[in-house]
Each structure stands twice: as C-alpha cells, then as structure tokens.
Amino acid sequence: MRRILAIAACATAVAAVTAVGAAPAQAAPNPVTALKAQFKTGIGVKFSDKFLAGKQIMTRRTGTFQFGRSGVAASDISTKFNLKAADIAEMPENIQPLLKPEQVVKIGSVAYIKGGMFGGYLPEDKTWLRAPGGPAAGLTGMFGQYLNPTEPMTLQKLVKKAKRAGSVYTGKITFGEVYSTSKWIQSHTDRPTAAQKKGVISYKLYVNAKGLVVRVVSTTKASTLGIADLPLITADTRYTGWGSKVSIKAPTEGVAEMDELDLSGLDEMSAPLGRLVGKAS
C-alpha cells in the first residue's frame, strides 16, 4: 500500500510539473503599446548616441525628449563633433562654424538653436536663434541617429519588418519607407532621390522587460542619407530613464529672430542654413 501511495504521489507531482511546463508562454510586450503608455504630460526619456563613419566616431550627441498626450512635445539635444579645437582650426574657414558644438531646444514646432554654424550669423548680443519649423537636432541633425523610436509609426514599421530573438529585434528597411512617415528624418534631411529611397538601413532594436526601446543600432551607406565622401555609417543610441519627470523650457534671453541674421557671408557650405531661412520665411 505504501508503495502504491508513493507511486501515486510521484505521478501527481509529475502531472503538476507537466501542467506548469505546458502553460502557454507569456507574450512579449508590444514595443508600440509600451511607447504610447509613456505619452503623459511632463515625463520623458533621455538618450545618448554616437555616429560613426566606418569605425571612426564623428559625433556624440545627448538629449532628452519630453512627452505630451500624443507624443514628443519638446526636446533638448546637444551635438558635438569628435574633433579637437586644433583639428577644427585646420579646416576651411567656411566649414569651421558647422563643426562647433550645437544645442537645440524645441518646443512644439519652434526650435531654438545655439552654437554651431549660427555663431557667425547672430547679432553680438544674442546667443539663440528662434527658428519656427526648425529641426529638433539642428543643422548637425544628419550626423546622428536617423531612426527615432519615440515616433509610434516609425517604431511600428521597424518592429513589423524585424525578427525578434529574445529582447532584440533585427531587421532591414528602406530609407523611403522610413521617410514617408517620419517627421524626425524629414526635418533633418532633404527630400530623398529615387536612389536614396531604395537605400537599405539595417537595424537592431533592443527592448527591456516592459517592451521599451533601450538601444537602437542602425547602419546604411552614407549615400542613402545624401552624405558624400563617407564610408558605411552607423548610429548607436541608448535610451535611459523612461518615465522620468522632464521639464524643457524655451530660452527667454538672448534670443534672435530669423530676420536678425547677418547672412552676408552665406555660401554653398551653409546651404542647410539657407533652407532653414527659406522654411521659416
């Protein structure tokens, strides 16, 4: 009898273990759903990225996105080229301003730009340029991460075209597919040519247990983004502090308007500035 009871107990234990093992695996959190849950007034996420040409780091960028109920409501982004002051001094004079550190605070659709190319165009008593419709990452925006996972439509496309292995989504997408709906990339690049639209971007999205993106690594040919004379380019971005309190405000002192710019030295190297002026006028 004892033997029968022991066998019965073992059988019961095995059945219990089997039942537990047979339970359906919990579905992985949907990154798009997780992102939209972050869209609350006054919270946001920080990020830092590096932009490489081949294996050479060209720029480093840090920033913060502040959310509202429908997405990004404000941002504060700073970009610095990976160059020493002595290296910049050896560059042609018309290029040097573009290589200086640049900070952009964007509230809604209005960008406030400090440093970078504008140092040579602002009035002496002004440090910021108010640029309606200006790019969130300024004139150096093309030298940073071009896939923005805080845009629901962009993130949805990236997730849909990728294969997931654990917490990593790996995929490929054309530049044209991203450009068609991404306001982020539209504001930092010119309208792509037919050849650029076909350019392929390879990417990896890393998500945490909640489904929130914590890292994006993207790689493409420099020609895809309209950047000449560079090899394969890679942008590697890390996102931290999801859900933290964020308060980004526009500068109130030393702010110049677009019509205060001194464009007497404008040349072909400052074509992005010319486009910005035209967009705001």
What are its keywords?
outer membrane lipoprotein receptor (LolB), chain A; single chain; 281 residues; 23% helix; globular; alpha+beta; 12 strands
CATH names the topology as outer membrane lipoprotein receptor (LolB), chain A
Return residue spans where pLDDT drops below 50 for at least 5 consecutive residues: 1-24
Order of helices and strands: HHEEEHEEEHEEHHHEEEEH
Distance between the amino and carboxyl termini: 94 Å
Total individual domains: 1
The pLDDT mean sits at 86
Percent of residues in beta strands: 25-35%
Question: How would you explain this protein's 3D organization?
Answer:
The N terminus is likely disordered. Strand 7 and strand 8 form a beta hairpin. The chain is built from 8 helices and 12 strands. The longest helix is centred in the first third of the chain and has 20 residues. 23% of the residues lie in helices and 34% in strands. It has a single domain, classed as outer membrane lipoprotein receptor (LolB), chain A, CATH 2.50.20. The chain has 281 residues and is an alpha+beta fold.
Could you provide a short overview of the structure?
By secondary structure, the protein is α+β, with helices and mostly antiparallel strands. It has eight helices and twelve strands.
